[in-house]
Amino acid sequence: MKFPDLITLALVLLSTLLIFLLPPTANAGNIMLYKLCGSTGTYTANSTYDSNLQTLLTKLTTSATNSSSNFGFAKSTFGSIPNEIFGLVLCRGDVNSSTCSSCLSQATQEIQNLCPYYEAATIYYDFCLLRFSNQDFISTNDNSNNYIKWNNMNITGSQTMYDSYVNYLLNTTADYAAFNSSKRFGTAELNQSKAFPETYGLVQCTPDMSSSDCASCLNNLIVEMPKWFTGKVGGRILGVRCNIRYEVYLFYSGAAFLSLMPPAENAPAPAPSLALAPATALQGKKKTSTGTILAITIPLVLAFVVFAGFSVCLLKRRKSGITKPLLNVSNPEEIESTVESLLFDFSLLRVATIDFAEENKLGEGGFGAVYKGALPDGQDIAVKRLSQSSDQGLDELKNELILVAKLQHRNLVRLLGVCLEGQEKLLVYEYVPNKSLDQILFDTEMRHLLNWRKRFNIIYGIARGLLYLHEDSQIRIIHRDLKASNVLLDAEMNPKISDFGTARLYGGDQSQAITRRVAGTCGYMAPEYVMHGHFSVKSDAFSYGVLVLEIITGKKKTFVENDEIEVLLSFVWGNWINGTITDVVDSSLGEQYAMSELLRCTHIALLCVQENPTNRPTMSNVVVMLSSETVSLEIPSRPPFCIANGSIRAGSRNIGRSSSKSVPMSTNEVSITDIEAR
What we know:
The chain is an alpha+beta fold and 678 residues long. Helix 14 packs antiparallel against helix 17 (537-553), helix 14 (452-472) packs antiparallel against helix 20 and helix 17 runs antiparallel to helix 19.
């Protein structure tokens, strides 16, 4: 290390000497970092809500610290509506039970003093966090209300290289926490013997999160780092569900779970695959003989080369849509036994739907009609009867069924099974009581049931469901027909995406990039999909943007205004550039909405409906943008479509060879399934 670098490092260490050379103690970690008082209402002293809150806070602290198996974590609810309260506490993974208890006890007192009589509040310390609310947040992985802080000192040397090393450090530690730790906690040190000082990292998720949800949550924080921490020697992002931190000094207790070496000096730091186990931790420290150094370094370099090569191969496989199957589909006995557990008799479904009676018909789409039914045990079901034109072979359909049936997410309708008898192919889903979003959103008598809070939750839930399909599920699925009628609402008005695997089960290949069978609904489909058959996660993003604008405005993708057909995208865009965006808000909302959230949702939707797919955000970016008001948004470009004379035409710029090229418009919103792409 050069002499100027030693001076810089000394200054950094001296600036933090009094606090950070000592091991963590209860008092050191009990300094409050951040608090947020909620906006969902207030309660009065000695009220039922007050009493319930005291009970809940005591219950959370006791539960988190009573057993080592709880890992300093607890979530619970207490009371009944309208005085029901939801709460969550989490202690940092390296602190002991005594320190955890002390921190939570202080949090319990201070949160009520700092946010007196608020029905919702969040507070962060170094060693613990606490959140409570009258809204149910514990059944979700919502990681909003973030606290972001960085060290004002800049690193000496190449900031770009140092940032890549930090990214490598935190990505590798995130892999460990998500896939190798039941606590969903990990620490690491990056030994940088030449250019930079040693850097230490810590990541954590709540232990109740799945590996994939934890990895996704941490990744959402890591991708935010360049906006805040470029060239900084330390930084942290704290959230209720997951958090990350790095420093050039040791800030956690105990030995690091991982001891890492930096990538080769002229090679970029790898982006470790979330499916890979982390590198083996090094034992011991520096200042050994040359032979010992070589004995350690050479295997590490070789291991890194193999690791990086494998990561590249895995990333290429993911980009091409090839993923590891959920089971060995080449084993006929395994396929048959799995399918058998998912099979329904046609006679049973016929009775359940009263012979597919018209009065039980819930709707009809491009793949077939859907009927409500009831099984003998009383369970309500929804049965989709696929049209006879499906070209899916029986064996191929069985394989796809096994994969799609394994997908489970709170924002996806669950596939219960299938019926394969003769020419009949029926899919059996869970029944969702509030039917589809379009039946409420576009009904003048019912749309008032969707206040702004419910609409925002629907917007966010759909984004989470798509993110799962695109990135977090073990098979990659592009929906290709996302629209209001394919979003169902449960009893609490939570959204559940339906038909997410139907294209696969029907016979469409969801992993290829070009198709000659365009399956979708005009007005929701991205221009590159309509005109050329190109589909990707970005075409789903386009459909999502249209859907979000419908939710905000209460208007369909095309609507009649003053006896003329209006296009929703053009309508919203015109008001956006004129600064009159409040004119597009659904009148049934009145003025009962959060202006900042509404503007942000509209902005995100306009980013999603941009003509160039590369300019549209991914769903992981959308979730981040919806979760945090601190994330800056780019300026959207004009949407591509306008409608005239009963056809959809390219808008401000040419799509393909001619701006006048048109395709049929489905006025009754029935999906188009057989447009030949030119």
